[in-house]
Structures are given as C-alpha cells and as structure tokens.
Design brief:
This protein is of the alpha+beta class. Helices cover 44% and strands 22% of the residues. It has six helices and ten strands. Helix 5 packs across helix 6.
C-alpha cells in the first residue's frame, strides 16, 4: 500500500504500473452506489433503479435517479447523484445543440461519446477530480435500440443487459442465466425487477423503485408512473412468495422423510 500513497494525490500522476488511482477511487464510489439495471429488448430498452431509502421519513419522490435527456433518450445513474445531475445537464445541452444545428434528434451513440469525452477531460487536468458516477443510457434512434454504459474514466461500452452499482455482480449472474435476445419489453421489465428483488433481498416496494423505458414503436423515452409500475412489481413479489412457499414445503417434506428413515433404521436395529 505504501508505494501507492505518492501517486494518488493528483489526478495527473500515473503510478509505476500505469494506474490512475483517483479514477479507481471514483469507480469505487460507483460500486458503493445503489443498483441500476438496464435491459435491451426487441421492442425497446428498460431502465430500473433501486433508490435505497435510508429513512421512513424520506419522501421517495425526492430521490431522482432516472432522468430524461431528450425525447428519445433516458439515463439511470449510480454513485454520486450530484455529479450525475451535472452530466445529465451536459447531455441535455448537447442534445439541444444538435437539434438546433442539424434539425434532427441526436444519435444515442453520439451523445454517449460526448458525455464520455466530457468525463475523460476531468481525468487529465490538475485541479479537478473525476466524476464519481456511472450512467446507463437508453435510447432509440433510426429504429435501433441502444443500451450504453459510461465509466468514470470516460470509457464507453454497449450492452444487451447490464447493471451498475453495488449489486452489479449479482444482477450480471442473473442476466447471464436468464437473458434472451428475443425478450420483449414487458418480460425485460419483469426480469429487471426480479434482479432488484434478489439484490435487495426482497426489500423493494413501489416507493423504492423507479423505472423508465424507450419504446421502438413510439420512438421515445418515458419514466413510468407508480400506477404503471405497481402491477409488474406485485407480479414479481407474488412469484417470489410462491417460490419461497414451495421451497419451504420441499424442505419440510425432506425433513419428514429423513425423520421417517431414521425411525425405520432404529426399528431395524431393535429387531436385529
């Protein structure tokens, strides 16, 4: 650890093994953030976030982690929300500049690259720090659906399904097992809710989850209202409760069978 100490005090200093520790610390801030999930379907893209309300006195509506950038693009964030708001505002400005200059909506990939370029600039100059947030961008453009992730370093990756935040590894395992290229939007929404259910160990309700989606047919992005999201959430909760009941019944049956076997064994010993 000691050699590191001289190389993490300025963003412009590389360590001998080629690492920028301030960027790595920014990634750590994202890992400690709440889980955000993105799933690309045949007919759109779904974004979901766990808002992780820390007090029952907190108004859930005041915690904003899904944003609309343009009519056809939305974003979910994990990490420092204040940093994310600055990036969202930057993205909105870029989208409006493109609209004014070219008289057409901005390409999703172009917007993502512009945001990443902005983030990368904050890793290259002294007196600044990296953005401690990652974004999942969802959009539809020219009939194609896009799901992209921006990293604190300014790196950009496109995914079929992914997650950012503290539950990333758990969600990734679920998606690798259950994701299908032909999945439809409603099924993608249910899959995302199931992933968040597992990450939070069942502690989710309509006040702690936000969702947004792009629809290929309507060529737009919108944030779902609580009334729209609630039926899907109840369906997932019902599924998990039934699965839990079956698991308990199976465990009880196994315990009874085991006890019966022990009784038979004891009787056999007595006869012998």
């Amino acid at each position: 650890m000691m050699p590191q100490m001289g190389y993490d005090r300025a963003i412009t200093v590389f360590s001998p093994d080629g690492r920028l520790f301030q960027v790595e610390y920014a990634r750590e801030a994202v890992k400690r953030g709440t889980t955000a999930v993105g799933i690309k379907a045949k007919d759109g893209v779904v974004l979901l976030v766990d808002k992780r309300l820390t007090s029952r006195l907190l108004e859930g509506g005041s915690v904003e982690k899904i944003f609309q950038i343009d009519d056809h693009i939305g974003a979910a964030t994990s990490g420092l929300v204040a940093d994310a708001r600055m990036l969202i505002d930057r993205g909105r400005v870029e989208a409006q500049i493109n609209k004014i200059v070219y008289d057409e909506p901005i390409d999703v990939q172009t917007l993502a690259k512009k945001i990443c370029d902005f983030k990368q600039a904050y890793t290259q100059f002294g007196g600044t720090r990296p953005f401690g947030t990652a974004l999942l961008l969802a959009g539809v453009y020219n009939g194609n659906n896009y799901l992209l992730e921006t990293d604190p370093s300014g790196a950009l990756l496109e995914y079929k399904a992914t997650a950012i935040g503290s539950g990333r590894s758990i969600v990734t395992e679920i998606f690798e097992e259950m994701y299908d290229d032909d999945i439809l939007l409603e099924d993608a929404l249910l899959l995302g809710l199931e992933a968040l259910y597992k990450v939070t160990e069942g502690r989710i309700d309509i006040t702690t989850v936000d969702a947004g989606l792009t629809e290929s047919e309507k060529k737009g992005f919108r944030i779902l209202s609580a009334d729209e999201l609630e039926p899907y959430l109840k369906k997932v909760q019902s599924r998990k409760e039934k699965a839990g009941e079956k698991a308990e019944a199976g465990a009880e049956a196994g315990a009874e069978a085991g006890a019966g076997g022990e009784r038979e064994a004891k009787r056999g010993k007595r006869k012998a």
